[in-house]
Task: structure prediction
Amino acid sequence: MPKDSFLVNRVKSVGFALRGALLLIRTEASIKVQVFIAIVMTAAGFYFEISATEWCIQILTIAVIMGTEGLNTAVEKVSDFVQPEFDKKIGFIKDVSAGAVMLVSIAATIIGCIIYLPKIF
Result:
């Protein structure tokens, strides 16, 4: 069977990635909340007319949160597949993964305060 070309493989990879992003958004409650917050923050950016630099920081922050949440979900799904029963070691892995999302979310909140509090007050 002939191998697909480099370009065909890249197009397929993008398709798989888009499918994964849609699955994440459709099936995970936490990412739905984060998408809602991202929409609100984007609207706030337009309302407060944030600078190009602030837009870049905001977009990067949103992307890091979404990406980290996606990785957290993947870790949880793999953990559940590998060990469906309760296991302290798997619990530790899942807690650390969720903790990473929390750390990024705290940083995002601080970034949001730095950008928007001066515009509000």
Remarks:
- Residues 7 and 13 are 10 Å apart (CA to CA).
- The mean pLDDT is 96.
- The two ends are 65 Å apart (CA to CA).
